[in-house]
Amino acid sequence: MKQRSNILIAPSILAGDFGHLSEEAKRIQASGADWLHVDVMDGHFVPNITIGPQVVAAINRATDMFLDVHLMIYNPFDYVERFVEAGADMLTIHFEATEEVDETLSYIRKCNIKAGLAFCPETSMSMIPKYLDKCDQILLMTVHPGFGGQSFMPEVIEKIKFTREVCDRLNIRAGGKVYNPEKKGPKPPPFDIQVDGGIDLETARECVEAGANVLVAGTYLFKSPNMKLAVDGLRECGNT
Predict the structure, then answer these.
(1) What pLDDT band is residue 182 in, cutting at 50, 70 and 90?
(2) Residue 51 φ then ψ, to 5°
(3) Whole-angstrom Cα distance, residue 168 to residue 179?
(4) Distance of CA 93 to CAs 44, 46, 64, 70, 121, Å?
(5) Is 39 a catalytic residue?
(6) Would you say 142 and 207 are in contact if contact means Cβ atoms under 8 Å apart?
(7) Which pLDDT score is estimated for 23?
(8) Candidates 39, 42, 136, 192; catalytic one
(9) In angstroms, rounded to a whole number, what is the distance separating the alpha carbons of residues 188 and 15?
(10) 64 an active-site residue?
(11) Catalytic residue among 42, 196, 200, 232
(12) Quick check: 10 and 204 in contact, CB under 8 A?
């Protein structure tokens, strides 16, 4: 049997039919994707409004997939409990959306789910190393957050490379834990670096080569005539 790629695929339900979200969630699960990505927007941090905790709860009832909830909202600390109760398995907040980054990441983890930290394309990559041991995932936006269907921003590739190089140099592995290479036993999985925006086969390869291992894709997957084949194609980027 061919070894499974270590690349995780997270279809964004933002690109689905909002009149049939339950069916779209089941369609994502049937595709063999690893996570289901949910974009939450407040109309203030980004110029768009999408969904809230009640809709996340409805999606959660429709599937048993890992819910990767991306909060593009100001003051995310105030909403952590509501999204945890709705069924989120990971909450990713934006560095630019709060002055309480450390406190919010810590609180998310105290709620027994994973915590992610997202960075907009314009934010300096010098901010990233400080938080690698405080979260389970770094999300590097490859478009301006707020709307689906945007074109990939190739300048973010350098930020992906930088993040992976720092993780490798400091031996930071899954969950932001420092790994001792002299310790006996299996090597922990790599730290998760997620990319979101304009992801298709071509841009996915670029991101994976740079060091990303979690691919969020919306328009590309939902416009595909066969989502399962499209998911498999993206995952194969880790084997090329």
Answers:
(1) confident
(2) -130, 170
(3) 10
(4) 14, 13, 23, 6, 15
(5) yes
(6) yes
(7) 97
(8) 39
(9) 33
(10) no
(11) 196
(12) no
